[in-house]
Fold this sequence. Notes:
Blueprint lengths: L3 E8 L21 H14 L4 E6 L3 H14 L3 E3 L43 H18 L4 E6 L1 H11 L18 E7 L2 E8 L3 H11 L2
Helix pairs in contact: 1-2, 3-4
Amino acid sequence: MAEETIVHLMRHGEVYNPEGILYGRLPNFHLSDLGQQMAVQVANTIKDRDIVAVWASPLERAQQTAMPLSEMKGLAIHTDERIIEAANVFEGQKVSIGDGALRQPKSWRYLYDPFTPSWGEPYKKLAARMASAVKSAREEARGHEIVLVSHQLPVWTSRLSFEKRRLWHDPRHRQCALASLTSLAFEGDTLKAIVYTEPAADLDAKASKGAGA
């Protein structure tokens, strides 16, 4: 039997965002106090696993989420641009249904194609760069486990791609909670299973309640 390698795609913890904007790739958006608790809780949950490397998106919230695990395992954080958040033309604006940028006629020219999508990085491009990162991570950690701290859309798009499902989707139906793990289990180079877990589910419930969601 071929050796098993597990690549864990982790979403970062809650972000301090009192304005409620789409922060995307903007700098200086860091974890809230609750988000930091999430990062520690996940690290405590998986610290005894055979994790040999920790990678993170270059964005601050991902780096902060990776920190507790890297310290517990004695591993330096490897920064990888391929797992960064998706680009989006609405960065810095509110995009909630019923308010903000989506109510402005000048924004409508970006909304003509939900399948690519027309307002941001194409899903196919996003899936390709995530697949490239997962392949590199699998090769580095072969026979062991590795954690890649990324963002909701990259993680979810990656999962859809690996499951050979259509990439366009309703954002409200993503199974990718704060600080969740989407774990890709490989035998050799063959993907055998995808397991989704929420080690910080109790804290995520607090985050949702605080946001009024």
